[in-house]
């Protein structure tokens, strides 16, 4: 998949994989080699991440149901927690430096191309996103 920051007109990733199952989400990138430039891992239905078992840091973008960045975290270290964002519908894990290079900021609109058939069933049906009132 390709992820683009529409607001900044920058490319975030061109080789982004999607966690297609609950097991994929649970394992995440634990034990995987470090992400390279252009790579990423999208976790649909995710409201927070942990870095326990990871051997390298990550940049992380939390997205709402409209693919708006509701949290932008740079250089999350191994053996730490990211915050829980109850309005998050997906989390995008990226190599460190990607947020800076793409100039991604809170409130930016992202486009996830090639993901319609992968994200909607995971987010909308089994793990519905909701808006806190």
3D structure, described in words:
The protein is α+β, with helices and mostly antiparallel strands. It has a single domain (2-124), classed as Jelly Rolls (Sandwich), CATH 2.60.120.1140. 15% of the residues lie in helices and 31% in strands. α1 (22-27) links the parallel β3 and β4 (39-44). The protein starts with a strand and ends in a 9-residue tail after the last helix. Residues 116-128 have low confidence and may be disordered.
Distance between the termini: 33 Å
The share of residues in helices is: 10-25%
> Treating each run of at least 4 consecutive H or I residues as one helix, how many helices?
3
**Overall radius of gyration:** 13 Å
Residue-averaged pLDDT: 86
Number of domains: 1
**CATH topology-level name:** Jelly Rolls
Q: Secondary-structure element order, as H and E?
A: EEEHEEEEHEH
Give the CATH level 1 class. Mainly Beta
CATH architecture: Sandwich
Concise synopsis of the structure shown:
With 133 residues, the protein is of the alpha+beta class.
Which key terms come to mind for this protein?
133 residues, alpha+beta, Jelly Rolls, 3-stranded antiparallel sheet, 3 helices, 8 strands
């Amino acid at each position: 998949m390709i992820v683009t920051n529409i607001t900044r007109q920058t490319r975030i990733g061109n080789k982004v994989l999607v966690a297609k199952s609950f097991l994929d989400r649970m394992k995440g990138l634990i034990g995987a080699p470090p992400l390279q430039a252009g790579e990423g891992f999208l976790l649909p239905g995710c409201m927070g991440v942990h870095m326990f078992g990871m051997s390298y840091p990550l940049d992380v973008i939390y997205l709402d149901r409209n693919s708006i960045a509701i949290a932008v975290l740079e250089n999350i270290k191994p053996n730490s927690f990211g915050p829980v964002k109850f309005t998050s519908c997906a989390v995008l894990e990226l190599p460190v430096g990607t947020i800076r290079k793409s100039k991604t900021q809170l409130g930016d609109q992202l486009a996830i191309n090639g993901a319609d058939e992968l994200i909607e069933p995971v987010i909308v049906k089994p793990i519905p996103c909701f808006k806190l009132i």
